[in-house]
Design brief:
- The protein has about 100 residues and is mainly α.
- Helix content is about 90%, strand content about 0%.
- It has helices at about 1-15, 20-45, 50-70, 75-104.
- Helix 2 packs antiparallel against helix 3 and helix 3 packs antiparallel against helix 4 (about 75-104).
- About 15% of the residues are buried.
Amino acid sequence: MIWTQLNQWWHAAVDGQEWLVLFGMSAQAMFMMRFVVQWISSERARRSVMPVAFWWFSLGGGLLLTIYGFLKHELVIIAGQLPALIIYSRNLHLIRRERREAGA
């Protein structure tokens, strides 16, 4: 009985847009990887660490989620991700500039 309900829910949620659901799930998985990378890096260092990969996963996942929001016409997703993309890009810019200055 519960399997039937889950199956009905799944078909209603997907509703012929399997590719879009797969895209959205992939975007969410990429965005989630930033936390996994940060957690593993912190565990290895035995202190809180923010690796550069965190910002790259944030930017990539946020960009994909923004695209997903546009495709689904989801204003909440778009409004939540667009400002964050600026922050992620700025952090990557600051890291790059710091590394360049340290190497000079």
